[in-house]
Amino acid sequence: MNELAIITKNLTKRFDRFTAVDKMNLQIPKGSIYGLLGPNGAGKSTAIRMLCGVITPTEGKGDVFGLDVYKESEKIKENIGYMSQKFSLYEDLTVMENLNFYANIYSIPKKIKKERIVDIINMAGLEGKEKSMTKTLSGGWKQRLALGCCLMHKPKLLILDEPTAAVDPVSRRIFWQIIYKLTKEGITVLVTTHYMDEAESCDEVAFLFGGKIIGRGAPKEIIRKKNVKNLEDVFISYVEEQTGEKVEASFNKIKFIQSDEAGE
Amino acid sequence: MNFGRLITIVKKEFIHIIRDKASLGMAIMMPILFIFLFGYAVNTDVDHIKMAVMDMDHTIQSRELISKFKTSNYFEPTIYVQNIEELESLIDKGEVRGGIIIPSGFLKQIKKGKSAQIQFIIDGTDPTIAKTALQSGMMLTQKYSLEINNKHLEKNGLNNKSNSTIDIRTRVWYNPNLESTKFTIPGLIGLILQNVTVMLTAFSLVREKEMGTLELLIVTPIKSVELILGKMIPYIFIGAIDFLIALFFGTYWFNVSIEGSILLLMILGFGFVICSLAIGMFISTVAQNQAQAMQMTLFFILPSVLLSGFVFPIEAMPKVIQIGGNFIPLTYFLKILRGIILKGVGIHYLWKEVMVLSIVGILLLVVASVRFNKKLD
């Protein structure tokens, strides 16, 4: 049996009266790619932030590599690389300065540092951009630089919050190639995304709705169980179940309705 | 605390500062601009008060009295009027601040050895001007009447030395000419220094919160103390430069000489820079965004202008407000500045103020570090 990287039991986060994450139970095996799916505001980012130690859970249990999210969040931080939704590197620093900054913050020894930075530049395909000001990079480059920075300390767990939200299709594929390569090296990945093609390449996914997990499993299995074509249909059927409202499955129909209305 | 991480933050902050030319320019130009602006504007010395003269006596005696007013430099009795209505209208229009009325028979009364009356009218809308005018007006006339008296006595062969009067010898210390710049400039140096430095750090952490870069920093092993100190250290340099600029222009340009030890002044000045940077840092940990940080900074700066004793004497305030002033670090720094610059006193007289500022500075840094516990909720 696979060892687990993340275990949560009834993990809950409330903001005043609003429950963002409601009794979440997760078991994420080491070395897997785990996808958290769900509509906007379902609690994906909140869940991730609790695991990273950015916010404190209201109740429930959370373990990352056997470390407690309440008491040992600083130790957890040594083992994880985290990319938040918003691009969060220093825009007025150059690519090299950003890399150097994170290398030093993670106290990477001088001997290894140079080599590590070169590796990251190669991995992210940032050769020749070292002296560019970060704000001048395009979305795809920025994203790969951010990934590089959070891999600086060779974390065992990579937590990505909508990493490809503002990235073109080609850059998206380059990004995921890097992720696959990393899992081959044994890294565990927890990722949220709205791209169902990305979700289908996860080992396991969980659907979040209103802070609750309403379904989980290997993508192929879920698709088979629901008897639909792809994960996108699974996503829509889950939302329909929860809200009781019909969602138009095809964009063609939506387009048809719009042109109809325009014609009136 | 990890020294390497601290240095890393310091380096990064320096890069931010150097690349943000506009902010850097502001930080350097603000003290220069403020010291000139306030240095000239905040001046309570009143002289050359415009006066209307209604001389109905037209004698040597009356003209001599008017010339006494003129030569004193406090007054400019240049506009002559014929009647009281004209005088009123001039004061109403604000063309003069007051008037001197010398009734006819002024000389005659004096010659008879009787007391002669004159009227002195002052526009009281601005009490500062009115007070100075009244005092100097009274003094001038009293002096003049004493002169007349003495002449009288001499003429009549009497020696006034037999008169036993109290002879008061006044001596004003530290500022013999009672120039208001001597009082305001040191206060101004303190005020400018406080305002610029509090603003420098008030935004530093909030900016990262808004940019999202803080979230990433939180997930690194960096300690709160390293981040807070690392962000502050570069600004100590800027603050020190600001202090030297304000001190140089304040003393050199406005001719306020430093009586005490310049070294002590610098050491304590840098100390105050650290203290007010800590105030800014504290604001930065409390505020949720830059707009809030701005509001809090203003909320802090405005009362400190009034309560610190920068222009308005603390002694004149009600007890409750005076107590409020005790919670403002600037109050203590102004005592230090005026003590060293004007009185030339040493640390023996200022250790209490130094203690208060050190405690406040250290306390705020500790509170800021604890408050910023690397969480976003």
Helix and strand composition category of chain B: mainly alpha
Please give the CATH class of the domain at 4-86 and 155-246 in chain A.
Alpha Beta
Give me the number of helical elements of chain B.
Answer: 15
Which percent range fits the helix content of chain B?
A: 55-70%
Strands in their spatial order, largest beta sheet of chain B:
2-1-3-4
Distance between the termini of chain B: 24 Å
Question: Order of helices and strands of chain B, N to C?
Answer: HHEHEHEHEHHHHHHHHHH
Count the helices of chain A. How many?
10
Residues in β-strands, percent of chain A: 15-25%
Q: Tell me the major beta sheet of chain B.
A: 4 strands, mixed
Protein name (chain A): ABC-2 type transport system ATP-binding protein
Domain ABC transporter (chain A): 6-235
InterPro entries (chain A): AAA+_ATPase (IPR003593), ABC_transporter-like_ATP-bd (IPR003439), ABC_transporter-like_CS (IPR017871), P-loop_NTPase (IPR027417)
Keywords (chain A): ATP-binding, Nucleotide-binding
How would you describe this structure to a colleague?
The complex is a heterodimer of chains A (264) and B (377). Chain A is α/β, with parallel strands linked by helices and 264 residues long. In chain A, 41% of the residues lie in helices and 24% in strands. Chain A has a domain at 4-86 and 155-246: Rossmann fold, CATH 3.40.50. In chain A, strands 6-7-8-3-9-10 form a six-stranded mixed β-sheet, sandwiched between helices. In chain A, strands 2-1-4-5 form a four-stranded antiparallel β-sheet, with helices on one face. Chain A is globular and about 60 Å long. Chain B has 377 residues and is mainly alpha-helical. Chain B is built from 15 helices and four strands. Chain B has helices spanning 3-19, 21-41, 60-71, 84-93, 106-111, 127-155, 180-202, 204-211, 213-218, 224-253, 262-286, 290-307, 319-325, 329-343, 347-371; strands at 49-55, 75-80, 98-102, 119-122. In chain B, strands 2-1-3-4 form a four-stranded mixed β-sheet, sandwiched between helices. The two termini of chain B are 24 Å apart. The interface between A and B is medium-sized, with 30 and 27 residues. Chain B: GO terms for molecular function: ABC-type transporter activity.
